[in-house]
Structures are given as structure tokens and as C-alpha cells.
Amino acid sequence: MRLDFWKDFLDLIFPRNCPQCGRTLFDFEPCLCTICQGSLPVANFHLRPLDNELTSKIRGLTQVNRAMAYLRFSKKGKSQKLLHLLKYKNKPEIGEEMGRLYGLLLAQNGYLNEWDVIVPVPLHPMKQKRRGYNQSEKFADGLSKSLSIRVQNLLERRKFTETQTKKTRLQRLENVDEVFDLKKGESVTGQRIVLVDDVITTGATLCACANVLLANGAKHVDLVTIAAGG
Q1: Can you give the pTM of this predicted structure?
Q2: Which of 8, 51, 97, 118 is deepest in the core (most CB within 10 A)?
Q3: Which CATH number fits domain 43-228: 1.10.260.40, 3.40.50.2300, 3.20.20.70, 3.40.50.2020?
């Protein structure tokens, strides 16, 4: 009773608002309001995970099994706003909520017990210190809650890379060449891995990470992101 009183008091003084529309959140809404959840631009890559525009995009760059994204990215759209808040406005809870919601959708579509471990794409330590968290790891945490799969930071970024935003496809591939490695002492032999990131555009970063995992003996690697962009 006492805890409920203080929670109600804090909610009155510091109300929780939906980051998308600004509405006050109910107790059963962890991050996004129900209305905004229902209007998300959900993609359906999980219905054709082996043959879709994402698998076509990365063909020839890696030998991953499946590629999926929760949302379709569009400039000035809802997915871009959420990603901007997640990456640049200190809203790590958005990443976790996107993972939780997509994990529930995947579970409903037969993806339980498909993977042994969730591996987030790593940030360079300097960038993670500046941001305070790795947005891909937050997304992984949300997936973990819904799918009951452990998260492990098995990869490390060996050098700092320039932002990929304004680079061509070839420049992005060159920018991440030999950037990632398996952490010392870790093993992925025989593991079914779902590799996660915030967004897939050319797929260069994800493919570079997937190739490291496969070269070190992973049984297979699937790619899952919050959003898929052009």
C-alpha cells in the first residue's frame, strides 16, 4: 500500500508520457501508449524470413540464415522518430520496448526455441561511454524477455569507425572491414545465434559481424533489427 502511494505520488509529480505522441501513460503501458503501439509501421519480414528484400540486400556478403526487421523505416516517419529518441535523446527504454514487442510477435509466429543466444552488434567503447548505453543491446534485452533467450556480448569492435549515414554501399563495406572480432575467451561453436542491431540499411555492419561469428564456428546466424531502411 505504501509503495503504491509513493508510485502514485511520483506519477503525479513526474508523469510518464509516451515519447511518440506525448500522452500520459497508464500503468500497463511500459513505454509507448497503446494507440502508438497499434500504429507502428510493422513489417512482415518474419513471414518470409528466408526470401525477402533484406535477404536479397545481403546476398553475397554473408551466409546468414534469415533476416528480419520489426518496423519499416521511412524518413520523418514514426520509426525514424523512435530511433532518433533511442540513439540521441537518452531513451534506452525505447529499444527495450521495441525488443519486447517484436519478441512477442515472433513468439506468436513460431519463433520460440529457434535460437540459443542473442548477440548485439557492439559499439566502440568510446561511443558507448558517450551515449551511456548500446541501443542494440537494449533491443536485445527486450527480445530476451519475450523469447526467454540469454543475451551475450560476444563481439568487440576493434577500432572506431566513421558514421555510416552518408556513405555509399561500397564505402560502408570498406568502413567496417576488419572492425569486429570475437571477444577473447568466448566460444560460439555450434551455437544458433540471432544477431541484432537497431537498423539495417546496406547490411554492411551486420554482415561483418555475422561473418566473424560464422568463421568462429556458429551453427547458423539470423539477423534481426528494429527497423529496415533504404
Answers
A1: 0.88
A2: 118
A3: 3.40.50.2020
